[in-house]
Amino acid sequence: MSTMGNSTNIFWQESPVGKLERQKLLNQKGCVVWITGLSGSGKSTLACSLSRELHTRGKLSYILDGDNVRHGLNKDLGFKAEDRTENIRRVGEVAKLFADAGLICIASLISPYRKDRDACRAMLPDAFIEVFMNMPLALCEERDPKGLYKLARAGKIKEDDSSFILYQLIALLLQIELNQKDGVCPTPSAMAGEVVTYLEDKGYLQD
Amino acid sequence: MSTMGNSTNIFWQESPVGKLERQKLLNQKGCVVWITGLSGSGKSTLACSLSRELHTRGKLSYILDGDNVRHGLNKDLGFKAEDRTENIRRVGEVAKLFADAGLICIASLISPYRKDRDACRAMLPDAFIEVFMNMPLALCEERDPKGLYKLARAGKIKEDDSSFILYQLIALLLQIELNQKDGVCPTPSAMAGEVVTYLEDKGYLQD
Questions:
Q1: What does the alpha-carbon distance between residue A33 and residue A105 come to, in Å, rounded to a whole number?
Q2: Which residue of B has its CA nearest to A6?
Q3: Which chain A residues contact residue B149 at CB under 8 A?
Q4: Superfamily of domain covering B29-201
Q5: Is A7's CB within 8 Å of B77's CB?
Q6: Catalytic pick from B39, B49, B108, B111?
Q7: How far apart are CA A155 and CA B120, in angstroms?
Q8: pLDDT tens digit string along A97-130?
Q9: Which residues form the signal peptide (chains A, B) (predicted)?
Q10: Which residue in A20, A101, B152, B189 has its CB near the most CB atoms, within 10 A?
Q11: Domain-by-domain residue ranges, chain A?
């Protein structure tokens, strides 16, 4: 019996089918691929391309998209700093459950603050692969897929909501950094290939 | 672009590998088996037995246990009525994601209030299988695996926290009701068998 936060009288219930058994069934290892970067840096594109490539190899993955999750689990949250932190915490907790279930969970969120990403990494230190879409701000702003930069330039986004253009790179603990090469962005499939190679090298694509 | 609750400027990002493709990979259909009943009614026992039986058949399931989730995703929540509702809402949203990922998600929570269970059913109306552990209160109290009934009888649980012995059965929409037979509880494996037969009959165990 333990006390966690505001909860008392709660017990840990052991599951009889363990993570190792699920991984054997799936012939892969559960992990979290956490894709972070500015709005317009290509996070969702990479998530889609990566899940397609993994599926082609018979691997089960699932995308937790920051915006999609705000339609369901996190629809009670806004964009204040504490709401962003809670948004990322919940996605981290759910990603951890998916990894425990044996899936390759692809989380795609701006997640600008280092401490929020690190808190998620701390939940699953051995199976958290951070992928940083290190694309130039100018390129992201040119793409502006959601029109957010335009709104920001027009002063139409509250300061609280503008952290999508703040991005903390200090103390980076990332595993993979994707950059332009000679001023050209790699194709989605090339970027997915880089992540898949990493997963393969680290043994995630077999049980 | 849409507004959901407190969130604005959010978009729905389509995933390129769809539920049907994941189901084909797993040769099963994603769904939620929601096990509800009093403390001590055998929810966790059934969840374990069911996941074992499904694993034996090569099916991928994952248990969302109400108490376990309070150690992670829901550790900010207590036992006030609104916290219980939020606890169940979040588990429902996560269960929906697991079903979308193609898994047979086994949710095991007391979930005493009809409206909370119905809200979860509404998230996934076509693939929500409610299993009610209809065991006598006297039996549950005799088992009292967490000592909660003892605490309640001793007046040591705040009224707010005592809804584990309140259980709303009105307007039951359940698919499976498990009862004692001639005053004897069915074995965990017999109960799991009943649920597996249901899943089989409804086509969940193939893609």
A1: 6
A2: B78
A3: none
A4: P-loop containing nucleotide triphosphate hydrolases (3.40.50.300)
A5: yes
A6: B111
A7: 39
A8: 999 999 999 999 888 788 888 999 999 999 999 9
A9: none
A10: A101
A11: 27-201
